[in-house]
Amino acid sequence: MKIETQRLFIRSLTTGDVPLYAVIVSDPDVTRFLGDGSTHSRKKAEGYVKSNIESEKALGLARYAVVHKASGTFIGICGFKKMENYTDLGWRFNPRFWGKGYATEAASAVLNYGINVLELTDIVVSVATANIRSFKVAKKLGSKFLEPQKSDMQGIVKFSQVAPNNKTKKDAASRAYC
Ligand SMILES: CC(C)(COP(=O)(O)OP(=O)(O)OC[C@H]1O[C@@H](n2cnc3c(N)ncnc32)[C@H](O)[C@@H]1OP(=O)(O)O)[C@@H](O)C(=O)NCCC(=O)NCCS
Question: For the segment 37-70, what is each residue's pLDDT rounded down to a tens digit?
Fold first, then answer.
């Protein structure tokens, strides 16, 4: 896949992205709210990139590479992950590129791609309210495409896709189980 936004290219991950992705997830500020919060080894980062390449081949969706147009630098990832009964939308960026609106720009374009090209009707964004930066990204998307649900016991808020083209939530659920 390939999408172009005002300041970014968003494209399929390749094994060439492993070195810069590994740097991103070796930073505790990035992994603080991911999994158990620990940083990722180079081997784990490589496995993650490879599993996303495989996911795109097998399922037609994955987390994608986000490239800063002006410098040509790989700055993070944003995209989809197939869960048991919904499609997760997630992101993680190099802190050098935080605070510039790139995550929201990428996530908005990827969400559009998911709805209009992949025709997904079961997209969910899950964010811990303590993850303030990520929460803000989700809320900004929420004004257009997603509606926030109540937070659960762990303080995770799920933003669910507002079904496009009169498709109902029931349609989305039945599709997710097909
Ligand atoms: C979550 C994450 C991607 C958010 O990154 P971010 O840079 O804060 O988010 P955005 O790209 O939307 O940038 C928003 C900020 O850029 C500022 N900004 C500067 N120039 C801008 C521009 N041209 N357009 C839009 N916003 C701009 C905004 O004002 C906003 O700042 P504010 O939050 O202080 O108001 C990043 O913090 C991250 O990688 N975290 C670690 C991984 C993680 O937790 N992932 C999510 C798991 S659920």
Answer: 999 999 999 999 999 999 999 999 999 999 999 9
Write the pLDDT tens digit of every residue in 8-47. 999 999 999 999 999 999 999 999 999 999 999 999 999 9
> For the chain, how many structural domains are there in total?
1
- Tell me if 9 CB under 6 Å of ligand 1: no
Distance of CA 133 to the CA centre of its chain: 14
Per cent of the chain over pLDDT 70 is: 91
- 73 or 173: which leads in pLDDT: 73
Among protein residues, the one whose CA lies closest to atom 25 of ligand 1: 101
91 within ligand 1 shell (Cβ under 6 A): yes
Question: Domain range for residue 87?
Answer: 2-176
Candidate of 23, 74, 133 to mutate for ligand 1, largest count of ligand atoms within 8 Å of Cβ:
133
Do the Cβ atoms of 85 and 173 come closer than 8 Å? yes
Which CATH number do you get for residue 138?
Answer: 3.40.630.30
Ligand 1 binding pocket includes 93 (Cβ within 6 Å): yes
Which atom in ligand 1 lies closest to the alpha carbon of residue 78? 3
Structure tokens, 102: 């790139």
74's enclosing H/E stretch is: strand 73-82
Question: How far apart are alpha carbons 175 and 19 in whole angstroms?
Answer: 37
